[in-house]
Specification:
The chain is of the alpha+beta class. It has helices at 16-31, 58-66, 70-86, 103-113, 118-131, 139-148, 153-157, 163-178, 201-211, and strands at 5-11, 38-44, 56-57, 98-99, 186-189, 193-196. The radius of gyration is 17 Å and the shape is globular. This is DsbA family oxidoreductase.
Length: 212
């Protein structure tokens, strides 16, 4: 029987390095022709669990959280845009960009798992936030993303206010944090080994070759 590999990706929708890391992993899988031998599951991690409903100015947020000056932020954003371009992804940073709360997005990603649409929804939401200047905490934006990937928006959105669904995401976040995952992206292979950060495509290739 052909061995398959389960990869859990612990990440957030508004994490640029998570997008870069995933796109590099995707490239490695494609170049090795392993699409049928890898199963990806996205796991929740909120970079900003206490982010208010109306979000926060991105420049102010990054300065408060990491102490980065405006010049440092602009340099970092230019670097991410260049990495994105190499991978066919657009990072469109703009002056009034806001960091937003992603808890609802994680509930919807869990819902999408049942229909094998997790990766499609994850990338749709990430694209909406980074490439299309959309607020992925806004329920209309979330509704459109669900429709775009062919999911039942009404059924999915109904889960957002259920305590059982909210508790499920909190429990999953705690599970990964208790395992020592404190930065994202973290790629976990068959729940046995892990890589943290947006590793180069060649590193992912090496790991995939070793494990498969």
């Amino acid at each position: 029987m052909t061995k398959t590999l389960k990869i859990d990706i612990v990440s957030d929708v508004v994490c640029p390095w998570c997008t870069i890391g995933y796109k590099r992993l995707e490239k490695a899988i494609s170049e090795l022709g392993l699409e049928d031998r890898v199963e990806i599951e996205w796991q929740p991690f909120e970079l900003n669990p206490n982010m208010p409903a109306d979000g926060q100015d991105l420049t102010e947020h990054i300065n408060e959280k990491y102490g980065a000056t405006l010049e440092q932020q602009k340099a970092s954003q230019a670097q991410m845009a260049a990495h994105g371009e190499e991978l066919g992804f657009t990072f469109d940073y703009f002056d009034d960009m806001r960091m937003v709360n992603t808890f609802d997005a994680h509930i919807l990603l869990d819902y999408a798992k049942t229909f094998k649409k997790q990766t499609a929804l994850k990338m749709r939401l990430t694209t909406a936030f980074f490439s299309e200047r959309q607020d992925v905490s806004d329920r209309e934006v979330l509704k459109q993303a669900l429709l775009d990937v062919g999911l039942n928006a009404e059924e999915a959105l109904a889960k957002l206010d259920l305590e059982s669904e909210q508790e499920k995401i909190r429990t999953e976040q705690s599970y990964w944090k208790n395992l020592g995952v404190n930065s994202v992206p973290t790629f976990v292979f068959d729940r046995k080994s892990a890589l943290t950060g947006a590793q180069p495509t060649d590193t992912f290739k090496q790991v995939l070759n070793e494990l498969l």
